[in-house]
Amino acid sequence: MILDLELAPADDARKDIAAVLSHVDRFLQDRENGIAHASAADVAAYLKSMVPYHTKVLAMTVFKDRYEMELELGFVKVVCKLKRY
Q1: What residues contact residue 44 under an 8 Å CB cut-off, 6+ apart?
Q2: What one-character-per-residue DSSP string does 11-35 give?
């Protein structure tokens, strides 16, 4: 579940970005059901395989109840919080 989302610059493709983050959220849920939480490298590899444009995980912090990530999706910088299951 997306808890918070900031885009820089503000982008008209919010629906597309939210869809990508929903996929990342499901990926993180699947990893939580396994042995351990996903790493920034795991998320980077997942994004690279999922979307056709440049992606980069700039920062990722795992908290007890959420993930906080800073991503580059194309030319858009995304700062988000995703619920940890």
Answers
A1: 55, 56, 57
A2: -TTHHHHHHHHHHHHHHHHHHHTSS
